[in-house]
Specification:
The complex is a heterodimer. Chain A has one domain. In chain A, strands 3-2-1-7-6-5-4 form a seven-stranded antiparallel beta sheet, with no helix packed on it. Chain A contains no helices and seven strands. In chain A, strand 1 (4-21) and strand 2 form a beta hairpin. By secondary structure, chain A is mainly beta. Chain B is globular, with a radius of gyration of 24 Å. In chain B, helix 10 runs antiparallel to helix 11 (218-227) and helix 12 crosses helix 13. Chain B has helices spanning 8-16, 42-46, 55-61, 72-87, 116-131, 145-152, 168-173, 185-193, 199-204, 207-214, 218-227, 255-275, 308-319, 350-369, 398-404, and strands spanning 2-5, 25-28, 37-40, 66-69, 93-97, 100-103, 137-141, 160-162, 242-247, 278-289, 294-305, 328-336, 339-340. Chain B is of the alpha+beta class. The longest helix of chain B has 21 residues, at 255-275. The chains are: A mainly beta, B alpha+beta. Chains A and B meet through strand 4 and strand 5 of A and helix 1, strand 4, helix 4, helix 5 and helix 14 of B.
């Protein structure tokens, strides 16, 4: 089973990068601060829109090479939320913890 | 041109989560021990994991397999990208399911002057650019839908194949009868009974033999034409039934639990009805018991219905007549006798108007603040348990599903 920890906490995105995907320059998160730690992303997986009622939410699936992070950007409040972290056990420093399933 | 995304859901998850790439991945609809794999990555398929296999069997074959719960909005995003790319070549685009579709280039010759193989390669490149580096697709090009689908399945993954009059016999000679879409064990047995054992013999069989002795219907004539590249599958079917079913999450559910799931199924079925702007007159309720017994009851009513409350009331009427003994393992509700909804027509009966207006108000609130913001109190225990599944057969409710996800 997939080891996904549900977080659902507001986080600060402290660095961005820009990439020319399609006709326009687009903005992606590069690093975030969470639990007093700075996590630098190494790759952007998939960015897709979704909705919560009428609110547009942009979902960013990011990785730092050790775990996958699911971030949501609320286009109305302009805030970032760390939704979940998925650890598939690649990190040597990964905590020996039984994760809960994300719902 | 038939376009088929390779192991779509698994590949989208691998695209979204780079750490899953190169690993055996299975997609499930629920994260439980009793779940089954609804899509497998090519790494998992190479180890023998198949779609529909349960979790324990998949783990025996691929101990490192990682099961990921399905996430419909992701697949919807890739689906929209694919549809947008396809529609840029022809207005005649038919999506057969979430991960496969057909472009009919007939009549677009003045615009598309390039060879179709070149357009196919361009579609692959655009999918890479817009959906992600990991995304690949199979493309089949042929005179009709059936042969195009056959061509798309020849070289997986990431293939591009053409079947035309020059290589039709050569291509069919490499296939078995059940490799053909629409020929499974029963049709194979029918063909074997008249001495047809290979697709080439099937191709050489006369229309009369297929119609009179093999399929014993017009289907035989259709197969005769289909194998020769004539288009016989360009048909759209109307919606005949709308419903939902659920396999119980508890081994021994009590009556309250079962009724909560029934209420939830009725609610989501009514939402589907209104989404399609239809009303139903008939209702069908079934239950499968732990003993293996199966019970169903159906009734055609005089008046039509489309509201949550009315559907639940009528379904409960039938459900109360079920045999009370045994644990319910599976439950389903289905509506039939569908006709265009008269929701906008004001009724002479004030009671009906009040219910219609209440339903419209609830729908408006739910559209604004998210699905199931206002819901039946009885169905609350089922919320979060009865989840929307990925629709395999069609994409009719995909937008609705993504709103509910």
């Amino acid at each position: 089973m997939d080891n996904v920890t549900k977080i659902e906490k507001d986080v600060n995105i402290v660095a961005y990068y820009f990439h020319n995907r399609g006709p326009r320059l687009r903005c992606f998160p590069k690093a975030m601060e969470w639990n007093g730690k700075r996590i630098s992303f190494t790759e952007t997986g998939l960015v897709h829109p979704t909705k919560k009622g009428q609110r547009a939410i942009h979902v960013f699936d990011m990785t730092d090479g050790n775990a996958d992070y699911r971030l949501e950007f609320d286009a109305q409040t302009l805030g970032w939320t760390l939704v979940s972290v998925a650890d598939i056990g690649l990190s040597q420093n990964a905590p020996n913890k039984k994760f809960e399933f994300a719902h | 041109m038939h376009i088929d995304l390779n192991s779509c859901f698994a590949m989208v998850e691998q695209q979204a989560r780079p750490l899953l790439r190169g690993r055996p991945v299975g997609i499930t609809n629920r994260n439980t021990e009793y779940t089954c794999v609804v899509a497998a990555s090519y790494e998992a398929k190479r180890l023998g994991v198949k779609v529909g296999m349960n979790f324990h069997d998949a783990q025996l074959l691929a101990p490192d397999i990682l099961l990921v719960e399905s996430d419909p909005p992701k697949y919807h995003h890739v689906y929209k990208i694919l549809v947008e790319i396809m529609r840029s070549y022809s207005p005649h685009v038919t999506m057969k399911s979430i991960d496969e579709g057909i472009i009919d280039f007939n009549g677009t010759e003045p615009v598309n002057r390039r060879p179709l193989a070149e357009i196919g390669r361009e579609i692959k490149r655009r999918l890479h650019e817009q959906a992600g580096d990991w995304m690949t697709c199979n493309i089949g090009i042929a005179p009709n839908r059936f042969l195009a689908k056959t061509a798309a399945g020849l070289n997986k993954p990431d293939g591009l194949d053409i079947i035309d009059h020059t290589n039709l016999r050569q291509t069919l000679s490499k296939l078995g009868l059940t490799d053909l879409t629409g020929i499974a064990e029963r049709n194979q047995a029918r063909l074997n009974a008249v001495g047809v054992y290979t697709p080439l013999q099937f191709l050489d069989a006369s229309a009369d033999l297929l119609r009179r002795h093999v399929f014993k219907s017009i289907c035989g004539q259709d197969w005769y034409q289909r194998l020769r590249g004539w288009e016989v599958d360009d048909i759209e079917h109307d919606t005949k039934t709308i419903g939902r079913q659920f396999v119980m999450d508890e081994m021994r559910p009590n009556d309250e639990t079962v009724r909560a799931r029934l209420a939830y199924l009725c609610e989501t079925t009514a939402v589907k009805l209104r989404y399609k702007r239809l009303a139903a007159r008939g209702i069908f309720v079934y239950a499968r018991y732990a003993s293996g017994d199966y019970w169903y009851e159906r009734r055609m009513f005089k008046s039509d219905f489309f509201t949550n409350a009315e559907l639940l009331r009528r379904a409960t009427l039938l459900f109360n007549r079920r045999p009370a003994d045994g644990w319910v393992r599976e439950l389903g509700v289905s509506c039939y006798g569908l006709s265009p909804s008269v929701q906008n027509q004001v009724s002479l009966l004030e009671e009906i108007n009040r219910e219609t207006w209440l339903t419209e108000a609830v729908d408006t609130v739910n559209a604004q603040f998210g699905e199931f913001t206002i819901t039946f109190a009885t169905s609350l225990p089922a919320k979060g348990i009865v989840k929307q599944k990925i629709p395999f057969g069609s994409t009719r409710y995909f937008e609705l599903l993504c709103n509910q996800a």
